[in-house]
Design goal:
It contains 17 helices and 6 strands. It has 392 residues and is an alpha+beta fold. The protein folds into 2 domains: 165 residues, no CATH class; 218 residues, Alpha Horseshoe (Serine Threonine Protein Phosphatase 5, Tetratricopeptide repeat). The protein is elongated. Pfam families: TPR_1, TPR_2.
Amino acid sequence: MLFFYYIIFLILFAVVLRPFSTLIHELGHGIPALLLTDKKVTLYLGSYGDPRKSFRIQIGRLELFFNKKPFNWKIGLCVLEQQTLSINNQIFINLIGPLASLILSVILSYLVFFSDLNDHVKAILFFFNLSTYYDFYINIVPSKEPIKLYDGTIVFNDGKQILDLLKLRNLPNEYYIGAEYYNNQEYDLAAIELEKVYNKGYREGIIYQLLISAYLQIKDYPNARRVNNLYDHKFKKQFNSNDYTNSGLIKSFSGLYNEALNDYNIAIEMDSKNSIAFNNRGYTYNIIEEYDKAINDFEKAILLDESFAYALNNRGFAKIKLGLKEEGLKDLQKSMVLDGTNSYCYLNFGIYHYDNGEYEKALEYYNKAKELDGKTYLLDKYLEEVKKKLSL
């Protein structure tokens, strides 16, 4: 009889009580998020963001995914659609999750030690109470152990996120000026301000990430590589898929093709839906003339994002180099419709005409690419080649 009682307790604990504790914790994040934002908030019970094999419930702006296997409900995740939140609001949303677990613990402690419930119920609640205190502890105490989400990105527990946000509150004014420049796509000005923050001795990961991205946007690859090396040295264990993608791009444009391919491989392993990593790896295969591998990557990128102009343009180049000129031309034309300001598209149109012996037409497209972006990779090499053909 006692054995049967323990079996019932374990089932009740695993299927009902633990999932309920996770739900309370995630609602602790979700309800404040609903109050502080005007966009959708999604809660995952039983996964770190995986909607597969889950049943979905929609309540206004609150979306919930419940894993169909209750034994997995010991984990959960809260995802906000709105990304622009003040640091104070982010701290509040992160803090309320563990506090919700603590409040549940205090209520259970009262029921266990001060209520008139029978001893069997108290015994169940006592062990449940211990688990809720444990939930509070492992979430509120900052941990450097990363949590890998379903999409391959890395996050940390609530305590570590709160600690990192508190550090951001202490950043100098130049950081906020730089972040605003970055959001307004004034990347050169953003880099200037963020360098000031770094030179003052601040070493938070977000500073490296924004600096690297800003330098990549203005195609300042030497500075992007310098900052990426510093970031790699200090935060390599915390790199996410996007970090490896940026690192790979820097190495691609620095002529370090094998190292770049290695970074892209890791980025894709971490996030199989990273269309930019697929495109960039394919672009690197194009440079080293492995066109079949390149096309395979571009097709995966296009499958993930059918309006990905760069991937279509790059696939067009690879097809032209494989002799599939008309198929390649169609890709270039479609890419041009999607993004008529893409200098690489004009470059590849020029290569198409160059390969057909139409050197004047090629020069026209190369010059247009130069006009759009004088830093287009390898453009000067192609310009020199066509000018030699035209004896210019």
